[in-house]
Amino acid sequence: GDMEVPSLVEAMEEWLASDSFNTAWRECYDRACRGSGRSDRNIAEQVLLDTAAALHGSLPGGRLELLIPEPDRDFVQTALQIVCAEDLQRAGLRDLEHFEAALVVVYMQLAYCADMLNQQLPDVSALMAVR
Predict the structure, then answer these.
(1) C-alpha to C-alpha distance for 35 and 33, rounded to whole angstroms
(2) Which residue of 24, 50, 84, 86 pairs with 32 in a disulfide if CB–CB is 3.0 to 4.6 A?
(3) What is the CA radius of gyration of the chain?
């Protein structure tokens, strides 16, 4: 198949820049905060993990939804170690701006990893997409 398919990273960038992402992450964040009271400051790591996982349900249908796995705790922590020197477990995320940025990093990293997997193991990712 020589058809130029845009990469998952490109598709993800487009979604992350859209209004639907903006609406979706705020809804997921509201749900993740429920019951713990929100200050929108020093947001706990658990809230980020819950939001990142829930946000997966808002991915646009098609390749992103099929090929992007739901981020788990290890993935989120590893993705953010690259950009966050601060200890998330202790300090949490400073504010909503940092919180959104963390979600963007996690989802870009998911797309990047999925692209790498597709390049290295096109048959495996095709099988995964079928499931």
Answers:
(1) 6
(2) 50
(3) 15
pTM: 0.85
Predicted confidence (pLDDT) per residue in 97-124, tens digit: 999 999 999 999 999 999 998 888 767 6
Tokens of 84: 């966050």
3-state secondary structure 94-111: EEHHHHHHHHHHHHHHHH
Structure confidence by residue, pLDDT tens digits, 50-71: 999 999 999 999 889 999 999 9
The CA-based dihedral angle spanning residues 83, 52, 91, 17, taken in that order and rounded to the nearest 10 degrees: 50
Question: What tokens were used for 27?
Answer: 């809804």
- Residue pair 30/43 in contact (Cβ under 8 Å)? The answer is no
Whether residue 76 contacts residue 54, with contact meaning beta carbons closer than 8 Å, is answered with: no
**15-48 burial code (b ≥16 CB/10 A, e <16):** bbeeeebeebbeebbeebbeeeeeeeeebbbebb
